[in-house]
Specification:
The complex is a heterodimer of chains A (410) and B (213).
Chain A: H1 15-34, E1 38-39, E2 45-47, H2 48-52, E3 64-68, E4 71-75, H3 80-88, E5 98-107, E6 120-129, H4 133-150, E7 156-162, H5 163-170, H6 175-186, H7 190-194, H8 200-210, E8 213-214, H9 216-224, H10 230-249, E9 254-259, E10 272-280, E11 283-292, H11 296-300, E12 309-315, H12 316-323, E13 338-342, H13 348-359, E14 367-369, H14 376-385, E15 390-394, E16 400-404
Chain B: E1 2-7, H1 12-21, E2 38-40, E3 46-51, H2 56-61, E4 67-71, H3 72-78, E5 83-87, E6 93-100, E7 115-119, H4 122-131, E8 136-140, H5 147-150, E9 156-161, H6 165-169, E10 172-181, E11 183-187, H7 189-194, H8 199-212
Parallel strand pairs in B: 1-3, 1-4, 7-8, 7-9
Antiparallel strand pairs in B: 2-3, 4-11, 5-11, 6-9, 6-10
The chains are: A alpha+beta (410), B alpha/beta (213).
Subunit structure (chain A): Heteromultimer composed of HisG and HisZ subunits.
Pfam family, one (chain A): tRNA-synt_His
Protein name (chain A): ATP phosphoribosyltransferase regulatory subunit
Chain lengths: 410, 213
C-alpha cells in the first residue's frame, strides 16, 4: 500500500502543537495591538521578480511554483518584500506612519540539496513604514523587548549592527577592495582578510573592523577613534543615543551586543540591523531578525519614490523551542467542557437544542454532542479519556440530567 | 564551559599540543586505552569532543562545539558556514592531481576530456576541472584512492599529499597542485558574536601561540 507523507521539510501541526503555537502568537499579537499595529495579510504566492527585487533574496532560495507567460511564481520566503510592495502601491495614499504586523507561513529552499531541512516556517513580525529617525528605531527595539517579555523569555541577547556605519567604515578602503573586505567580514573569514593582499595599514584597519563587537560603549569608543566622515560621525552619535535609550527603558532585560561586522554580502538594510538570540543549554537560537530599510519601498513604488521603513520578524518555531521548558506554555489541547448525550433517537432534537443553549453563554463554552453507538459506560470512559467532566443526558421531553465526573483530570 | 571539536587523525597531536600551550589539557585523548569521545580538561573550563575530521565543521556549524580545528582541505570541500579565525600553520599538506608514473599526462589540462578522476574531494575536484574547462567524470571514493588508476578505473586521482610516500609506493606521480592546506581554527559564527565565557580570549591566545610556533 502506498503511504502518503508530507513533502520533505514540511510537517503537520497536530492540535496540541497548534494550541501551543497559538498561545505564543496570541501573546505577541496582543503586544502588537497594544502598540497600535494592524494586521496585514499578503499573498503566499508572489512573482519571483518582486520577491528578489531588494537584492537580499537569492532566487535559488525561493520555491518556484510555476513558470507562466507573465513570469515566474514563487512562495514567499519572508514578508517584508510583500508588505513593501503593498505599502508602496495600494496603501501609498494612506496616512503615515503605517504600523503593520503579520503572522504567516514562509517557505525557504536550501540551495544545493535538502537533507530534510525545514522548508516551511511560521513567522510573526512588524513593519513600521514611512517613519525614519531614531525614535522609530527605538520603538521597534522596545516593541521587540515587549514581545519577548510577554512570553516570559528572559536573558535574550540582541546583536545590534549599523549597516550605514559599516558602509562608512568600508569606504575607508579603496573601491576595488571594498567588495572582498565586506564579503570576508560578513562571513567572519578572518583568514581571508589577511590573504587579500591589503597594505599593512589597511589590513590592520580590516582586522579592527572584523573585531568591532562587544559591549556597546567600548565598541563605540573604538569607532570614535577612526577617521569617519561627517555622516559616519552622525550615525555614531545616533547609535549611542539609541543604545542608551533602549537600555534605559526596556522592561525586559535585553543584553545588547554592538557588532559592526553584522552585515550580509548583499542586503537592503540601510541603518540599524539586529538579531535576537536566546541561549539555553549551550544551544544558541536566532529567534528573529530585523533592521531598517530606507530604500526598499522605492523599488516597489511606480515612480520610484522611496520611503523609510523598519521592522523585524520572529521565527515561531525557534521561540517555541526556547519555551518548551516554560510552565506557561499550554500542556494540552483545549478540553471540551460538556458532553451532551441524547438518551434515544427521539431526544436528538432536544439534545442539539440543549447543547446550543450551553454554547451561548458569555464565556467560551466547548460543547460536544454524543453521536451514538456506545453504551453509557463507554460514553463515561470516553469522557474521562478526553477530560470532559460534565455530562448532560437528555430525554425526549428535553429534560436534562446532569452528571459530573469527579475523577476527571484537569 | 566552551566545547571544542578536535579532529581524529593527522592533526590531533598538534591540536592537543596547541591547546596545552594555552592551558587546556586534552592529552587524555592520546592515551591508547582511551575510548571516551568527550572529555573535560582538568580545570573544568572546556570540553573537547573527538570526531572525524570531516565532521568537525558540522559540529561547529550547528553550534554543538563553539570552536574546532580542521584542515583547510575539509573547509574547501564542504564550504560550511563557520568563522575561519586563524591559520594555525601546522598539518601542512596539499591537494594534488596524481597519475601513474607511466602515464603520458604531465599536466592536468592534458588529461583526456571525459576522462575519469577518482577522489574523496569531489567538490574540490569538480571545481578545479571546471575552472580548467576540462570535462571529467569524478568518481567518488571513500579511501585508498590510489587504487583508482592502479586498477585502471580512472586516469588520475585528486588526493591529499603530505610527504608523497604513499603516491611513490603506489607508482603514482604528482602533476598539479590544487591548493596547499594547513590546520584552521574555526568557530560557530553566532557563538563568536555572542562571545560566551571569554571565547574571544581563547581565540586570541590560540592565534598568538600558533604564530609563535
Amino acid at each position: 500500500m502506498r503511504i502518503h507523507q508530507p513533502p520533505a521539510g514540511t510537517r503537520d501541526l497536530l492540535p496540541l502543537e497548534v494550541a501551543q503555537k497559538r498561545w505564543i502568537a496570541d501573546r505577541i499579537q496582543g503586544v502588537f495591538h497594544q502598540w497600535g499595529y494592524q494586521r496585514i495579510i499578503t499573498s503566499t504566492l508572489e512573482w519571483v521578480e518582486a520577491l528578489t527585487a531588494g537584492g537580499a533574496i537569492h532566487p535559488s532560495t525561493v520555491i518556484q511554483v510555476e513558470n507562466t507567460s507573465g513570469g515566474r511564481l514563487g512562495l514567499r520566503p519572508e514578508l517584508t518584500a510583500s508588505i513593501a510592495r503593498a505599502a508602496a502601491t495600494r496603501m501609498a495614499g494612506d496616512v503615515f506612519p503605517q504600523r503593520l504586523y503579520y503572522n504567516a507561513n514562509v517557505f525557504r529552499r536550501t540551495p544545493g540539496g535538502n537533507h530534510g531541512r525545514q522548508v516551511e516556517f511560521f513567522q510573526t513580525g512588524v513593519e513600521l513604514l514611512r517613519a525614519g529617525g531614531t525614535r522609530a528605531d527605538r520603538e521597534i527595539l522596545l516593541l521587540l523587548a515587549d514581545c519577548l517579555g510577554s512570553l516570559g523569555l528572559e536573558g535574550c541577547s540582541v546583536i545590534l549592527g549599523e549597516a550605514s556605519l559599516t558602509r562608512s567604515l568600508l569606504n575607508l578602503f579603496p573601491p576595488s577592495d571594498q567588495g572582498q573586505v565586506r564579503a570576508c567580514i560578513a562571513h567572519l573569514d578572518r583568514v581571508g582578510l589577511t590573504r587579500l593582499g591589503l597594505s599593512t595599514e589597511l589590513e590592520q584597519l580590516a582586522l579592527l573592523l572584523f573585531d568591532l563587537r562587544g559591549e556597546p560603549r567600548t565598541v563605540l569608543q573604538k569607532v570614535s577613534h577612526l577617521n569617519l566622515d561627517q555622516q559616519g560621525q552622525q550615525v555614531v552619535h545616533n547609535l549611542k543615543n539609541l543604545i542608551e535609550r533602549v537600555e534605559e527603558s526596556a522592561s525586559t532585560r535585553l543584553s545588547l551586543i554592538l557588532d559592526l561586522s553584522l552585515i550580509q554580502t548583499i542586503d537592503y538594510y540601510t541603518g540599524v540591523v539586529f538579531e535576537v538570540v536566546c541561549v539555553q543549554n549551550q544551544q544558541s537560537r536566532v529567534l528573529g531578525k530585523g533592521g531598517r530599510y530606507d530604500q526598499l519601498l522605492g523599488l516597489y513604488h511606480p515612480q520610484g519614490e522611496s520611503a523609510p521603513g523598519i521592522g523585524f520578524a520572529l521565527n515561531l518555531e525557534e521561540v517555541y523551542s526556547c519555551l518548551l521548558d516554560s510552565e506557561q506554555l499550554p500542556r494540552s489541547a483545549p478540553k471540551t467542557d460538556w458532553l451532551v448525550i441524547p438518551r434515544d433517537d427521539q431526544a436528538e432534537k432536544a439534545a442539539f437544542d440543549y447543547a446550543q443553549t450551553l454554547r451561548h453563554s458569555e464565556h467560551l463554552v466547548r460543547v460536544e454532542l454524543e453521536l451514538g453507538g456506545r453504551s453509557p459506560d463507554e460514553i463515561r470512559q470516553y469522557a474521562r479519556l478526553c477530560n470532559i467532566n460534565r455530562l448532560a443526558w437528555i430525554q425526549a421531553d428535553g429534560k436534562p440530567e446532569i452528571e459530573v465526573l469527579e475523577n476527571a483530570e484537569y | 564551559m566552551i566545547t571544542i571539536a578536535l579532529p581524529k587523525g593527522a592533526l590531533l597531536q598538534d591540536s592537543i599540543d596547541l591547546f596545552l600551550q594555552i592551558g587546556l589539557d586534552f592529552r587524555a585523548f592520546l592515551d591508547s586505552s582511551n575510548r571516551q569521545l568527550q572529555i573535560t580538561e582538568p580545570t573544568q573550563r572546556a570540553t573537547a569532543m573527538l570526531v572525524r575530521a570531516q565532521d568537525v565543521p558540522v559540529y561547529v556549524e550547528y553550534g554543538q562545539a563553539q570552536l574546532g580545528i580542521v584542515g583547510y582541505d575539509v573547509l574547501e570541500e564542504k564550504s560550511p558556514q563557520v568563522a575561519q579565525l586563524a591559520d594555525l600553520k601546522f598539518g601542512g599538506c596539499r591537494l594534488s592531481v596524481a597519475v601513474p608514473q607511466e602515464s603520458p599526462y604531465r599536466r592536468s589540462v592534458e588529461l583526456p576530456p571525459h576522462g575519469r578522476v577518482a577522489s574523496k574531494f569531489v567538490q574540490c575536484a569538480r571545481n578545479y576541472f571546471r575552472q580548467l574547462d576540462l570535462p571529467v567524470e569524478i568518481i567518488p571514493l571513500y579511501g585508498s584512492v590510489e587504487l583508482g588508476p592502479i586498477t585502471g578505473m580512472s586516469e588520475a586521482i585528486v588526493d591529499l599529499v603530505s610527504t608523497g610516500r604513499t603516491l611513490k609506493e603506489n607508482g603514482l606521480v604528482e602533476i598539479d597542485v590544487l591548493f596547499e592546506s594547513t590546520a584552521y581554527l574555526i568557530a560557530h559564527p553566532l557563538s563568536y558574536r555572542l562571545n560566551p565565557e571569554g571565547l574571544g580570549e581563547w581565540v586570541q591566545k590560540l592565534r598568538e601561540n600558533a604564530l609563535c610556533n
